[in-house]
C-alpha cells in the first residue's frame, strides 16, 4: 500500500531507486540494516513476481510482506494485526489429482513462516498498543465481501484468521528460493457484506499499523 511505502521510505538512509518490470524498488538502510522496499501491486502474480525479483536481483535474505486483510477468525476486529505462522491458497483446487484443497501440484498445502522472524515481530509488538494474533493467513485473487464465501473458506481452513490477495504467493516464491519469510496483515475489514465500505475507511490506518510494526522490529 502507498501509505506503508511512504512511512517506510521516509526512514530509509542512502536511498536509491531502481525499476524492474514496471515496479519501483527502493534500496537503503534502516538502523544500519540493508533494506529493499517495494510495493508489489495487487494479486498473486504481482506478489510472486516481486518476491522473486527481490531475491534474484537484490539478494534478499529475508522477506517481510505487509499489508491489509479481512479478518475471518473469531474475535478479530478492524485494526487488529495478524502475523503468519503459515500461509495457504483458498482459491486453488487440484483435488481431482489427489492433492489437498488449496494445494498446488508439487507444492505444500501450507507454507510455513520463519519462526525467528515471527518471534522478532512478536517482540516488537509488545511495545505497541496493537492487538496481535498469530496463525494461518489465506490468499486468493478475490476480495472477500460475503459471509457465505467466508464459510466456504472456513470449511477448508477452519483455523484461518484472515484472507487477502498476496501472502501465499509471497510465501511460495520464498519457499522455492529457500528464503525465510513472514507476513503481517492489519485488519481493514471483516470480510462481510460491508467489507468494501469498511476497507475504504480503514485502509490507510491499516497500512500505517503494518509499517509501524516493521519499523519497530528494525529499530529494536
Kindly describe this structure:
The protein has 220 residues and is α/β, with parallel strands linked by helices. The protein has helices spanning 2-9, 44-58, 115-125, 147-156, 167-177, 195-219, and strands at residues 13-20, 23-30, 33-38, 63-71, 81-89, 111-112, 132-139, 160-164, 181-189. The strands form 2 sheets. A 5-stranded mixed β-barrel has the order 4-8-7-5-9, surrounded by 4 helices. A hairpin with a 2-residue loop joins strand 2 (23-30) and strand 3 (33-38). It starts with a helix and ends with a helix. The model is unreliable at 192-196 (pLDDT under 50).
Please outline the helices and strands.
Elements: H1 2-9, E1 13-20, E2 23-30, E3 33-38, H2 44-58, E4 63-71, E5 81-89, E6 111-112, H3 115-125, E7 132-139, H4 147-156, E8 160-164, H5 167-177, E9 181-189, H6 195-219
Parallel strand pairs: 4-9, 5-7, 7-8
Antiparallel strand pairs: 1-2, 2-3, 4-8, 5-6, 5-9
Helix pairs in contact: 1-6, 2-5, 3-6
Give the number of domains.
Answer: 1
CATH architecture: 3-Layer(aba) Sandwich
**Count of helix runs:** 6
| Unreliable sequence segments | 192-196
User: Would you tell me the structural class of the helices and strands?
Assistant: alpha/beta
Report the CATH C-level class: Alpha Beta
Rg from alpha-carbon coordinates: 16 Å
- CATH superfamily grouping: Nucleoside phosphorylase domain
Please state the average pLDDT score: 89
CATH fold node name: Rossmann fold
Shape: globular
Major sheet, described briefly? 5 strands, mixed, barrel
Q: Span from first to last CA?
A: 24 Å
**What portion of residues belong to β-strands?**
25-35%
SS elements, strand count: 9
| Percent helix | 25-40%
Q: How is the largest sheet built, in terms of strand order? A: 4-8-7-5-9
Q: In sequence order, what are the helices and strands, one letter per element?
A: HEEEHEEEHEHEHEH
Amino acid at each position: 500500500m502507498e501509505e506503508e511505502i511512504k512511512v517506510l521510505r521516509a526512514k530509509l538512509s542512502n536511498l536509491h531507486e531502481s525499476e524492474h518490470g514496471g515496479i519501483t524498488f527502493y534500496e537503503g538502510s534502516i538502523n544500519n540494516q540493508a533494506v529493499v522496499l517495494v510495493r508489489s501491486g495487487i494479486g498473486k502474480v504481482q506478489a510472486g513476481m516481486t518476491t522473486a525479483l527481490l531475491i534474484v536481483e537484490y539478494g534478499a535474505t529475508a522477506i517481510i510482506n505487509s499489508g491489509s486483510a479481512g479478518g475471518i477468525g473469531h474475535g478479530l476486529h478492524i485494526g487488529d494485526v495478524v502475523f503468519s505462522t503459515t500461509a495457504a491458497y483458498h482459491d486453488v483446487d487440484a483435488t481431482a489429482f489427489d492433492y489437498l484443497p488449496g494445494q498446488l501440484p508439487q507444492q505444500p498445502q501450507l507454507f510455513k513462516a520463519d519462526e525467528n522472524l515471527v518471534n522478532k515481530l512478536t517482540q516488537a509488538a509488545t511495545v505497541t498498543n496493537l492487538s496481535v494474533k498469530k496463525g494461518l493467513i489465506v490468499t486468493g485473487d478475490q476480495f472477500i465481501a460475503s459471509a457465505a464465501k467466508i464459510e466456504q473458506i472456513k470449511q477448508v481452513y477452519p483455523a484461518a484468521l484472515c484472507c487477502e490477495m498476496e501472502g501465499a504467493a509471497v510465501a511460495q516464491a520464498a519457499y522455492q528460493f529457500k528464503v525465510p519469510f513472514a507476513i503481517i496483515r492489519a485488519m481493514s475489514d471483516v470480510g462481510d457484506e460491508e467489507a468494501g465500505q469498511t476497507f475504504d475507511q480503514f485502509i490507510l490506518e491499516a497500512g500505517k499499523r503494518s509499517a509501524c510494526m516493521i519499523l519497530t522490529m528494525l529499530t529494536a
